[in-house]
Known about the structure:
The structure holds two protein chains of two kinds.
Chain A: E1 2-6, E2 9-13, E3 17-18, H1 19-25, E4 33-37, E5 40-42, E6 47-48, E7 53-58
Parallel strand pairs in A: 1-7
Antiparallel strand pairs in A: 1-2, 3-6, 4-5, 4-7
Chain B: E1 12-14, E2 19-21, H1 23-40, E3 50-53, H2 58-69, E4 74-80, H3 88-103, E5 107-111, H4 112-116, H5 129-146, E6 151-153, H6 158-170, H7 174-179, E7 183-184, E8 194-195, H8 203-212, H9 228-243, H10 247-257, H11 263-271, E9 274-275, E10 282-283, H12 289-299
Parallel strand pairs in B: 3-4, 3-6, 4-5, 6-8
Antiparallel strand pairs in B: 1-2, 7-8, 9-10
Helix pairs in contact in B: 1-8, 2-8, 6-9, 6-10
Amino acid sequence: MAKIVMEGREWEVKRRINVLRFLEKEGINPEEVLVLINGKVVTEDAVMEPQDEVKILWVLSRG
Amino acid sequence: MKCRVCKKRAVINLRAQNRGLCEECFDAYVLDRVERTIKRYKMFSRGQRILVAVSGGKDSLGLWDILARLGYEPAGLFVDMGITRGNYSARSREVVESFAQSRGLELVVESLEAWWGRSIEKIGRRVLCPTCGMAKRYLTNRVAADRGYDVLCTGHNLDDEAAVLLSNLLNWQVGYLARQAPVLDSWHPRLARKAKPLVLLTEKESALYTLLRGIEYVEEPCPYSQGATTLRYKRVLNQVEWRSPGTKQRFYTLFLKNKGLFEGVAKEEREGLKECKRCGQPTWEGLCAFCRFMEESHGDFGREVSAGDQV
């Protein structure tokens, strides 16, 4: 099960899923995040596999 | 996605330019982009004395790193505002000091308390972003001008500038529109020349650069942060950007091309510049905003600034 974390939010995804598809499903704008799969920065077309650890970093500063 | 240049695995999809870049090519792209920005807007040149205002955040530390790698000799300036909540100022200072030490860069540290006799938390009933921003602008300008630096650089990126531009347009703040620029010349001996070398890098690109360089920075926003309005404009622009890549850059650079529209206002502002009766800093009033606030807060401790003041 892929574990995805983003600033206190957490998801567990059972099946492989494309990064862009996941972001769109969750209403996250890809312009505003960096996605790391197992510590490596990836582009939106990457695929998250069930065993992956995924971190989503929000990049906009809030002052 | 593959890197357009070398076909390795891409780390970013630059949709506005319709190309992906790998880690090495992205690094080269950032250095080239910033160097071109510095030259395009005639910001400064090698051999000049450059001061970078660093907060401990990703953009300012990234900028400091980039300028040093490009062969400029930038010193850093950290202004300690005395924010004790969450140990914020102390932690930020540690991060900045550690960065400077690891790269052998010169760092100037100033504190609001040393200048103003009190920290930002002791000024009003609560800490307000406009007051903090005004005090920071005053101190950074004063340190740069008094110490004879040729230019004061800040880490504002394309998202910051596009959001401010949108805000200024929605409110038709023609004075602010006339002054918004990637480089602001000094019109007065006590007014530092200012430059924003990251204006053509998006916030995502700036964040990725800092991450890939392994730069430690303060991730949390200031505990008193009230940046909700700017953040809202950034998010609106990013929604449009996602549907129409390149919008943010076009919005900002075409504004710069059309800045002549505001030249009348800019000229009036330059001609109306006086010196503050208290500190001699340039101002449009009898007292500069900093001294005016200081006088008011000393006379009536606990008074807050008007919510209409701009950061």
